[in-house]
Amino acid sequence: MTRTLTEGPVGSQLVKLTLPMVWGLFALIAFNLVDTYFVGQLGTAQLAAMSFTFPVVMTLGNLAFGLGVGASSVIARAIGEGDIRRVQRFTTNSLTLALTAVFLFASLGLLTIAPLFKALGAGPDILPYIREYMQIWYFGIVFLVVPMVGNSAIRAAGNTLTPSIIMTVAAGTNIVLDPLLINGALGFPRLELQGAALATVIARAVSLVVALLVLRFKENLLSTQIPDLEETLWCWRDILSVGLPAAAASMITPISIGVVTSFLAIHGAATVAAFGLASRVESLALIAIMALAASMGPFVGQNWGAQQIDRVRLALGQGYRFCLVWGLFMAVVLGLGSRPLAAIFNPDPDVIAIATQYLWLVPISYGALGLMQVTNSAFNAMGKPIPSITLTATHMVGFYIPLAYLGGQLIGPMGIFAAAAISNLLVGFGAFIWSRKTCLQQMKKASTEAEAIKL
User: Fold this and answer.
1) Which of 86, 57, 59, 53 minimizes the C-alpha distance to 71?
2) What is the C-alpha separation between 246 and 387, in angstroms, rounded?
3) pTM above 0.90, yes or no
4) CA 368 to CA 386: how far, in whole Å?
5) 3-state DSSP call for residue 222?
6) What one-character-per-residue DSSP string does 286-349 give?
7) Is the dihedral of CA 118, 121, 123, 129 positive or negative?
8) 226 Ramachandran zone, left/alpha/beta (phi>0; psi -120 to 50)
9) Does 322 or 346 have the greater pLDDT score?
10) Which end of the chain has the smaller Cβ count within 10 Å, N or C?
């Protein structure tokens, strides 16, 4: 809690925050890619089943992300204001809020596996595999949500290295367990998709234990006093004032992807499998942008709380330039290497061909997508979640779903992939304009208040 991001060179501080996050996110994405690799070797049906679970897993993961964003926002601003006791109260109560949310959503999820995935387009040949995976995954959701919220609290203090180490430990655990539990290596039982889910749950449980130990003993972010009901409720209110819109904005994306998956399901299991495969490769390609967006939260939060608006504006400008350069680089890399990359994960020629189409077309919009992600993170850190949810809803509901439906009807899967690229481009540059306007307004407001104080 003694860390401060309100002094020193902006660029070097962003680099120091982002580099550990790149590694942590790489570990997290490697976690998913290894799952995809081993499940892909089981067959196209199993890979399609995992692809159907992706929107639901993302939805609940993004719920946890939203709660973490709310916690990080209020904690970072409290650190910027110098209120240490308030920091501890917010951190402790963010974890109690996460536990409450876990209970509600896990109960609902276990009761709705069949109707939910049927609505997403899963056929009777795929549904048994989905049920095998999700029944275990839902029971382990506590190990997903609580560490995500805890890591967000640690990052709010300006420490991105420790959360990255925690994510690396979880990823390493999962990578070791996957061949043992999925394929039955070294005498372990061959559990196939159930093994993939169980490996994920065990890995997340390890991250839960480590995160709680760090929060309590290394960062001193947890209060030693048992909070009373009144304090808990006002902490939850402040966290949810940012966290609920952030969670809603985050959940819009996987829910929308679920709708788009149903459009793709019309074209067969190979198309859904290819989409799931390409989405995981995409996650790896966007790792630097996602790390920058995650790092922007604590930086903007602390500086906004300390009224250092010029530093916020400078950080956003540097972040935007990086997103555009990185997006162009990834478009070239994936355009040239899409087919061999797809072939690594699945030998089916139909899956490879469709995944190649995605990885050739959609990456041209990655730079603009980065503008939106960095802007959303900044708005949430400022305690202004409405612009973030507006941008996300416009991106997915206003553009992507309608364009994907139209493209799918007219062209097929290629039309759906084109819809993703067009949506990214339109909303990304809209986010850039909105963020610049917000910073200018805040600078004028601060200047007016300073003049009033002088008078």
Assistant:
1) 86
2) 10
3) no
4) 20
5) coil
6) THHHHHHHHHHHHHHHHHHHTT-HHHHHHHHHHHHHHHHHHHHHHHHHHHHHHHHHHHHH---H
7) negative
8) beta
9) 322
10) C
